[in-house]
Design a protein that fits this description.
With 301 residues, the chain is an all-alpha fold. It has helices at 6-23, 29-36, 39-57, 61-69, 73-100, 102-115, 118-121, 129-145, 158-172, 179-186, 189-198, 201-228, 230-244, 268-287, 291-294. The relative contact order is 0.17.
Length: 301
């Protein structure tokens, strides 16, 4: 009986981490891709896929085949499988946990995401004033973005679903910016989870179409930035992750205010789970290859 390659299982598990993260408001699947060390590969693969689609629209099948062949399917296939499984399963499991144990769960995610700051930071070869400025500006933007109040749209129309999916999918591949959080801010987070749970084909297809358009467009831009402005892009990612930590502060509830814990609110469990999350990422960092060993692209300003 043939054995399943270890790499296949590992990539499926990476997909499960990414898909599970994308269900949680405040946590980004892109952050998980950074944590497990496949972020640049993922962005390059998405860019190649988008180029193949554009070539087909230009009626250039030869170029489409060339771009399609450049996609690392041994990574992308199992990764997508894990993401789909985690999103469908996570839609059933994660929201109830967040509702039952909001502060401890947010503490866990706060530790995970805070430690992930080290991942893009260690990929910056040279710190300059410009890159520090980029990081601070992105941190401020993410901080403001995560303070937006949630909207409510119990029965969104197809245009709103399509456009919201375009916006949110871009956030899902940006570390530190949560696609689920943006869906919540745009008012379609709960309807989207309900559509997934009820297998509403029309809603899901409209959402997937918007996500495909947004992902294809944004992945091309992000791939160019990683290739030609690698260190500046990593500085931006550090800022985005740092600013977005606001969304994971365990205390404040739906009002999204920053406050100290009040009487009766858990503290010990929050601190413990935050330390567990932080330690788990540090363990992954110790186990994963360094940027030099991975062949990180040479930096540009």
């Amino acid at each position: 009986m043939p054995t399943v390659p270890f790499a296949f299982v590992r990539y499926v598990l990476y997909g499960v981490l990414m898909g599970g993260a994308d269900v949680i408001p405040g946590v980004s699947g892109g952050t998980m891709a950074l944590i497990v060390g496949i972020y640049e590969q993922l962005v390059g693969a998405l860019s190649s896929g988008a180029s193949a689609g554009l070539a087909l629209l230009r009626l250039d099948p030869a170029a489409a085949r060339q771009h399609w062949a450049a996609v690392p399917w041994r990574l992308i296939g199992p990764l997508l499988g894990g993401i789909v499984v985690a999103i469908l399963g996570g839609a059933q499991v994660i929201p109830p946990l967040m509702e039952a144990y909001p502060a401890p769960m947010r503490g866990l995610f706060l530790g995970l995401v805070a430690a992930s700051l080290l991942i893009p930071a260690r990929r910056i070869e040279r710190v300059t004033g410009l890159r520090v400025g980029i990081g601070l500006a992105c941190a401020a933007g993410a901080f403001v973005l995560t303070s937006l109040p949630a909207l409510a749209a119990p029965d969104p129309g197809p245009v709103r679903i399509f456009v919201s999916a375009m916006v949110a999918i871009c956030a899902m591949i940006l570390p530190g910016v949560s696609g689920a959080f943006l869906l919540e801010a745009l008012g379609i987070y709960a309807p989207t989870l309900e559509a997934l749970n009820m297998l509403d084909g029309g809603y899901v297809l409209t959402f997937c179409a918007g996500a495909a358009v947004g992902l294809g467009t944004f992945a091309k831009l992000l791939d160019l930035l990683l290739t030609h402005r690698h260190d500046a892009t990593m500085a931006a990612l550090v800022g985005l992750i740092a600013g977005a930590l606001r969304a994971l502060w365990p205390y404040g509830g739906a009002e999204r205010v920053l406050r100290a814990p009040e009487a009766g609110e858990p503290i010990g469990a929050v601190v413990l789970l935050a330390l567990i999350g932080f330690g788990a990422v540090l363990a992954l960092l110790a186990w994963s290859p360094s940027p030099a060993e991975e062949g990180t692209p040479a930096s540009a300003s």
